[in-house]
Amino acid sequence: MNIKPKIKLVDNWRAKLKHAWSVRILAISGVMGVVFQAWPTWPLDIFNTLPDFITAWMHPIVIKLMPAALTGLAIWVSVIRQEKLNAGK
Fold first, then answer.
1. Residue 88 has what pLDDT?
2. Could you tell me the residue ranges of all domains in the chain?
3. What is the DSSP string of 35-83?
4. pLDDT higher for 18 or 88?
5. How far is CA 71 from CA 30, 35, 47, 68, in A?
6. Half-sphere exposure of 71 (CA within 13 A, CB side)
7. Which of 34, 21, 36, 35 is closest to 73 using CA atoms?
8. Residue 85: predicted pLDDT
9. Are 36 and 64 in contact (CB under 8 A)?
């Protein structure tokens, strides 16, 4: 038995993809992840450039966890209805 799923995109998928916040957040997360893997000292360098009142209560590992946090945020944002994108329905 050969079942072929039919995938059908919405009519204006390019416009929706271009303006969706989840795509923007995932792009930032991906770039941060690649940069942090390519230059492992950058998260610590970024942490050291922050003002003292921020570094007093924040641990340096928070900077390294930003790509993972942004990915989680993008997943959460993708389920939120975005009125401007869904106006064409």
1. 56
2. 13-86
3. HHHHSTTHHHHHHHHS-HHHHTT--THHHHTHHHHHHHHHHHHHTS--H
4. 18
5. 8, 15, 20, 5
6. 10
7. 21
8. 57
9. yes
